[in-house]
Amino acid sequence: MRRTGVPRAxxxxxxxxxxxxxxxDAKLEVHKAQSQASNAERLESFKxxxxxxxxxxxxxxxxxxxxxxxxxxxxxxxxxxFHEAVAALVNPLQLNGGPDFDERVERVVQAQKTFVEAxxxxxxxxxxxxxxxxxxxxxTLVSNANVFTHIVNPAIKxxxxxxxxxxxxxxxxxxxxxxxxxxxxxxxxxxxxxGDERS
Length: 199
Fold this sequence. Notes:
The protein has helices spanning 8-90, 101-122, 128-156, 164-193. The chain is mostly helical. The chain has a domain at 65-193: Four Helix Bundle (Hemerythrin (Met), subunit A). The longest helix has 83 residues, at 8-90.
């Protein structure tokens, strides 16, 4: 009797092939599961590292923001006092009375000293634009105080230039208008930095 169908050698080969394929599929599934578990573990580890770094960065940023706000507070008050002292020095209404010239000059000297002591250690914590404004304001105040003290005031007393009143007006306008406008711009920028909407 003759057998029909798949020859025995082919049948064994097919069975062997299926067994190897099944074993390969099983091992592949195990490898996939291990790989996914390993990837998930690495992903969780990476997420944990990112969370730790983010917490550190937030703490540093929070400290920097506090330093920045403290610097703004520490510099702005002495700057405003320095501005007020120079404005009082150059104010034309001084002719109607008030502190004498030497007292006004001493107020400017002390206000500038206080300002410089506050500004130097805090300058690095100010935003760049604000630090630039502060430097410009300081320079303008010092320049105008010097012009008034060394040129305008002696001329008013009869020594030096012929018409000191035009120069006096120029100094007064610079201190009362231009510097005041720059201070207002700087204050606006600082408020924006602290979260206020720009006006």
